[in-house]
Write a structure and sequence with these properties.
Distance between the termini: 77 Å
Order of helices and strands: HHHH
Largest sheet: none
């Protein structure tokens, strides 16, 4: 019974593979296109180029802009002040952990 079920499953799986019309082999020359197919390709290419021209110009994207906020980008343009230097002398009475 299992053998019949497995054979049936393989038959069901292989049907879509057999439905393919023709798979071009390596080194095989492609078929010549008809005039209608060539005209369709030209029309599709022109429509694609027109659609590219319809896309508005995009401004620069700042992916971290929401995290930083608007004023953070303005502050980064101003050079930072040097940090206050602390003396390197050890304080008396301090203990090291």
């Amino acid at each position: 019974m299992r053998k019949i079920a497995i054979a049936a499953m393989f038959a069901v799986i292989s049907v879509p593979a057999l439905a393919q019309d023709h798979v071009q082999m390596y080194g095989e020359e492609p078929k010549e296109k008809t005039a209608a197919q060539k005209a369709d390709d030209v029309r599709a290419e022109r429509a694609y180029q027109r659609s590219l021209n319809n896309v508005p110009q995009q401004k620069a994207v700042d992916p971290w802009g929401a995290a930083r906020g608007d004023d953070a980008s303005k502050k980064s343009a101003i050079p930072a002040k040097p940090a206050v230097k602390h003396s390197s002398k050890a304080k008396s009475g301090s203990t090291a952990n």
